[in-house]
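Teaching assistant's notes for section 4

Start the section by putting this record on the projector. Ask students to predict, before seeing the second block, whether HTH-type transcriptional regulator LrpC will look compact or extended. Collect guesses on the board.
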Amino acid sequence: MPDNQHITLDRTDEAILQALQTDGRMSTADLARTVSLSASATADRVRRLVDAGVITGYVATVAAPALGYPITAFVRLAYPSGNYKPLHDLLDVTPEVIEAHHVTGNDCFIMKVLARSMSDLERITGRIATLGTITTSVVYSSPLTGRRLSPA
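Reveal the predicted structure now:
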């Protein structure tokens, strides 16, 4: 679905989205009971939401510290070139960068980085700094993560 296209959803579609954002592993039967439809009608609606690009996938949410990444940081990069291939190449070989966004303003990119330690963060940011000026903000805590979306 193109970025500027908006799909019209009814209340049942919205209820399906809310339920699946709360529990993406919910069975079709449980989802059907939640939204007061038959299982086949619910499955059809979910398939339509997938086909329309509203539902883009299902994922497991994992705790980074449990996997050995207790440090989260946001790294802003002022990238002096319009050739983004070196950045894309770096992102391809740096799995600790879990998000990267091209943004407006003084910085060109904002990246979310996970690290094993402060020295590991220094190593990762040192690699990013080879591309331009960086500013790093280490996360103390995250009072809001993964907010569910409702239609605009």
